[in-house]
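User: Structure please.
Assistant: Input sequence and predicted structure:
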Amino acid sequence: MISLENDHLKVWVKPKGAELKSLVNKSTGIEHIWDSDPKYWAKSSPVLFPIVGGLKDNTYKVGKETYSLPRHGFAREMMFDLESKTADKVVFNLSSNEETLKVYPFYFDFKVIYTLLEKELSITYQVKNTGQSEMYFSIGAHPAFAIPFENEEGYDNFYLEFENDSKL
């Protein structure tokens, strides 16, 4: 696992799937990411690429060829290369290879970048088409947050806040 740390946060990221495994607020000691208990769900924050969701019969066509992709794609199950690391930033990369080309006939570089910014963790996804043909993909994240229930606070005291209001 790869760690990042500043005065406020400590983060652990697993190279398999470039998956966020831990986000601890150092002043409170509270863990904010699900602990991956396999009894319920063995993931914590998988990265979804090159599809989000599932395909009918897990198949799709490009030209005359039929390909098969599992639900949410393959990135979450693959080892990413550690491209660079500093105390507050880590860059993981997954490039197309013999294995990916069997199920996804596009050449790509896919980076997942974790950056600590004071009391915030920024996660950036960069996808580059390194081939000659038009490349189709979707990208997403599936974070599971750990909600501390000390003092029996309940769900009503927790919320997600987004930078902008958007109508989807």
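Residues 2-35+46-157 form a domain with the Beta-galactosidase; Chain A, domain 5 fold (CATH 2.70.98.10).
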